[in-house]
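Please check this today:
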Amino acid sequence: MKPARLAVLAIALAAGGAAALLMSGEDKPVVQPAAVAAPPPPVPLTDVLVAAAELPMGQNIQAPDLRWQPWPNDALSAGYITRTNSPKGMEEIVGSIARSNFLAGEPIRPQKLARSDGGFMAAILPAGMRAVAITIDTRGSSTAGGFILPNDRVDIIRTYRDEEASRGGGGSDSQGSETLLQDVRVLAIGQVIQEKNGTNIVTGETATLALTPAQAELVTLAQKGGQLSLSLRSLADSGRSNDASLEIRPESALTVVRFGVAKQQSRR
């Protein structure tokens, strides 16, 4: 066979193979570029003065206890201290006393602070109430074993010598007890540091209670004629009314003498 014919035959075979390959192949899908989502608009922020760490009630606030933290404008409250409105807010707060606890990151509000140049007890005392300190047992037997802390709620129990039982033949050391007041808030537990066997031991000598003026008179008088003890209340019982069994009885009264005039007053 002549070379020319061989060349023509080879070209024809190559063309046929190429055509068959093209006919058997599938079209590849066209890849569309992924849509790029638009970034969300930035959230407007304002620097707010917050507690850098947990601050307990009575803490004298210093500069390391505070920091500026970006806060969403939609979540701002009128009581917050912002860098925009108070550029020197941190310097003004330093030296104040916390009237209640602050959590770490909680905004600082002036309503929860007291000035350091004023009395702390007067700052945390509710309006219309009086702070009265009573003597308690240093061994803790009259304060629930020493587990009563500030802001706890307690009942005041009075232990006294029962004169009527003694005259009735019950013995000269007849004792009686009764619940004087219920659901009383403890403002503070006085602490005294004593040394024992080379170790400093902290004991409570007094308990300061928040009382109404009438209750303050009653407790002060009761402390003169007997011993007062504190009974710790459960958190679930806080704010509940007095038990029916503790209703005022005619015989449960103290004799109050004012300006030479004796007057019977309920012990409740």
